[in-house]
Amino acid sequence: MNDIREVEVVVIGAGQAGLSSAHHLRRTGFEPDRDFVVLDHSPGPGGAWQFRWPSLTYGKVHGMHALPGMELTDADPARPSSEVIAAYFDRYERTFDLRVRRPVDVRAVREGTRGRLLVETSDGTWSARALINATGTWDRPFWPRCPGQETFLGRQLHTAQYPGPEAFAGQRVVVVGGGASGTQHLLEIAPYAASTTWVTRRPPVFREGPFDEEAGRAAVALVEERVRQGLPPRSVVSVTGLPLDDAVRQGLADGVLDRQPMFDRITPDGVEWGGGSPLRERGGGLGAGRRVAADVILWATGFRPAVGHLAPLRLREPGGGIRVEGTRVVADPRVHLVGYGPSASTVGANRAGRAAVRDIGRLLTSEERAAA
């Protein structure tokens, strides 16, 4: 037990949510290394942004909100967002002396002694009175299962592996997914590919006009209600709809964003609908047995929260999610999920980091009073 290092708070993850939390810990009087530690498994600063494809320039990023205490200014909109935001996060970590430890893989969080949590990592074990989990979703890409998937002779990849549009030159590409990534991929790939086909489970909803603060609060409230009930969170984007900007309008006019209902099976050389059975969706414009040949299936099907390391704490509810009030896990008030569910946005992560630190401060103070 002598090699276990004790701190008050362990922060797991150094993306927007983790850095915001660390910043508010610092402001509240917690000292890095002495009172708290930030563990990040990525090779460098930047959170998930450092892994984004080169064609996602900073000018294409929707709603990147600055970290607390430091604005992101004079960023070149033509520069890859992975470079812009990684440099910004790096400067932020150094300016506020957050001393992020990386690369460190967190393997499990368990119950310890004296009411503490044990955080087992590739760099030893930490003992903490509270935990801020800010691991996001990038490490858990969601791959739907579909009949015939294993027979496909072409290439299948997920948004997490997207290399940029040039890699699809001359190929027939099926893009699956109705979110912002799916539409961005299609608009980028179409000028290079031999053909593109857009497939979604539900008809996409396009949002016209500005997305004001009231609409944002309403969208967040819908996601928040799910996590309050212990259900798996949906993304905020899933309830806001897709912004109808000039590029999307052009894609609709050109037929690039001509959405088709979800196919029934994958064949060795493409995808197939119906196969003699009635289509599940009316008005899809597809006849039974219609096929589309494909060289590539690109799954733009989103991500799930990366919380597997919390499994020993048994936090999941019967509904499949982790029940959260604000950022605090109802089943264990020592654990806070920041960047989870309603706070899975850059502005939401900032606010959640502040709320988690405030709540943890109250928890630690009440424990100290009880022990006095």
How many E-type strands?
18
What general form does the structure show? globular
Low-confidence stretches: 276-285
Gyration radius over CA: 22 Å
Distinct helical segment count: 7
The ordered string of helix (H) and strand (E) elements is EHEHEEEEEHEEHHEHEEEEEEEEH
Give the overall pLDDT as a whole number.
89
Q: β content, as a range?
A: 15-25%
Helix content: 10-25%
Distance between the termini: 26 Å
Biggest sheet character: 8 strands, mixed
Structural class: alpha/beta
Secondary-structure map with pairings?
Elements: E1 5-12, H1 16-27, E2 36-39, H2 81-95, E3 106-111, E4 117-121, E5 124-133, E6 155-158, E7 172-176, H3 180-189, E8 195-200, E9 206-207, H4 213-228, H5 237-240, E10 242-243, H6 246-254, E11 259-261, E12 265-267, E13 270-272, E14 291-293, E15 296-299, E16 324-325, E17 328-329, E18 332-337, H7 346-371
Description:
- The chain has 372 residues and is an alpha/beta fold.
- Helices cover 25% and strands 21% of the residues.
- The protein has seven helices and 18 strands.
- The chain has helices spanning 16-27, 81-95, 180-189, 213-228, 237-240, 246-254, 346-371; strands at 5-12, 36-39, 106-111, 117-121, 124-133, 155-158, 172-176, 195-200, 206-207, 242-243, 259-261, 265-267, 270-272, 291-293, 296-299, 324-325, 328-329, 332-337.
- The strands form four sheets. Strands 1, 2, 3, 4, 5, 16, 17 and 18 form an eight-stranded mixed beta sheet that branches. A five-stranded parallel beta sheet has the order 6-15-7-8-11, with helices on one face.
- The relative contact order is 0.17.
